[in-house]
Give the backbone structure.
Amino acid sequence: MLEAPTKFKYRILGNLFLSLLGAAIITTTLLIIFSYLRFFTNLDPHQRTFLLGIIFLCFLFLIFSKLMDMSFAYIRRLTLTINKIAQGNFDVAIPIEQNDELGYIAHHINMMARQLRAAKIKEDRSIEKERLANLALREEEKNKHDLITNIAHDLRTPLTSMMGYLQLLTENQNLDEATKAKYLKIVQDKAKRLNHLMDDLFDYASFSSNQIHYNETRLNISELVAQLADEFYPVFEKHQLTLNMTISSPVIYVNGDGNLLARVFDNLISNAVKYGTDGHAIDIQISHDDISVTIKVINDGPEISRDELEHLFEKFYRTDASRSSSTGGTGLGLAIAKSIIEMHGGEIFATSRNHKTSFIVVLKRAPEVS
């Protein structure tokens, strides 16, 4: 840090000395010139002295003023900079040209500007954090409202149906056994759907709060997906679906929880069956490189729009085509799948074009064991 100097007065004295010297030189030069001029030689000694005195003082004033203007120009720069700072412009700096009081002031003006700029940046960051916190709070409140609304909707639909059929069973004593059995089967199916919804809700809450049990092992992802696909063969037969599997290697290892990953691919294959077109094919492709493994589950069927794809992995989101009672799920399956894949440090996304929808999972390959 600069110490407060006391050199400005010496600059003034120096300017005064230079002005005296300059005025003396100019006056002496003019005296020599005037000595050859008749009008000057015709003057008496007092007039000559007076004239030379006037000339000396004029040049002394002019030179001193010019030299001081240089200092005053620097002072004006200091003043202009202070005004800019007062108006909130802290991106200013004054070069320190002299090691005197003016340089000392310039140094502290620069230091003040830096401190105010840092304080402004800190304040802006604090305001931005507060704004983001408020946005997050409003988003959280909206999510809570949407959660309650969706849960109420998903619970009310099967409950209303169950209550209706139970009312028919209790109030209509003339129902034949076949009709009673039909109504009881419907009530049982709705109860299973409610139970499935509650399981998904509890699971999603566990994933959201990081309370899910995660048991990491080294597992062969090719074998895991192939076994799951085998379990779906009765479903494929029912819907007249053909399974096409393409695996780059029968042994591809990843580190992860086998039960959780099995749930992901079970969900993806189930979705391919639900929303695919009967009589077509479901393709499962597994490929790998040195650092990752990619699993694709592809089904024929109606395309999903780009807007819907962006929301596909949000909780309770379902495309319009999936809201019928025959295919409608809880809207949590893909959200849970995304949580599981992210827990494994991977990525899941979907594409839909040319009447084919692909769900793509990318996981890290486990390093080779020597």
Summary: Residues 101-171 form the longest helix (71 residues). Residues 8-116 form one domain. The first strand starts at residue 217 and ends at 220.
